[in-house]
## 1
Amino acid sequence: MIDLATARNDNEHLALTLLKSMEDGTLVETMQEICTEDFLWANSGLPTLHGQQAILEHMASGGFAQHLPLLKTMASFSADVLEIASFREFVYTERIDHHWDAAGRDLMTPVISGVMEIRDGKVCALKDYYDTECYEQEPTAPDPAHATA
């Protein structure tokens, strides 16, 4: 789970706030508040989304599950931030993302090197780099701590 208290400066706080919003289910509201209108979202092997409007339309049409069927049953998300560092307008994270279904099975668990760019106090880009082998991952055994059903 994301701990905002680990941020050492405003840029790291913004980056962690965006990631935490994915855990909390408040991504849309948070994106509109802390990201630029031309916010770019890039993931390895998936279409790069340019601008908040494109992201909203993508989410409304099924999000990344339309490209990765294993995500169709995703019920929640969490991330383990292993490392965070920042330099000037960039925030770098090493993390493990978890995509949980209602039974608490982890559907996809990429180990990610992520880069967020900050412009004028807002996140203008989120670029995540990882091995796309995770797209073929078998779900884990159910973890009751992450079950929602």
## 2
Amino acid sequence: MDDNELIRYALAGNTAAFGSLVQKYQNRLYNSVYRMVGGEQEARDIVQDAFVQAFVKLEGFQRASSFYTWLFRIAHNAMVSRRRRERPLASLDMLREATGQEPLDGAAGPEQHLVQQETAAQVRQALAALSEEHREILVLREIDGCDYETIAEMLEVPVGTVRSRLHRARVQLRELLKQVVH
């Protein structure tokens, strides 16, 4: 069943259809939010809030964009609202502390593993130093692989703004990485 059919059934009162949408998108949404907020519990809370709000507002979904884009926008708004209420920002180092490990390539040797850990730590440190706006756009484009149009839809900004923010974010990240490495 495609998203439109599931939405139609959910609107007709079939909660299992909405459950199918949750199953389909919960991991993808969680991974995106987690990379932006850096905390496991905060990401879970935001994703849960987003799905609850999506269920409540499902009748208002106009299908002008994909369901995931609409859902991400709800999660983004929940994340922004939460940040306004709880000013201290979570660092990306909290991500490593929460999991205790870096993702490993099974074929990598110990030396390669150390290099990967050091590189990952440097990137995390540089990402944490970026503004939330720049970190968010880099995560959406470089980690989640979203295209410019989708990012523009998700963030409710023109495509030109996405391009310029992404350019500035990459330049700033490059400069920060130079400082971290030297």
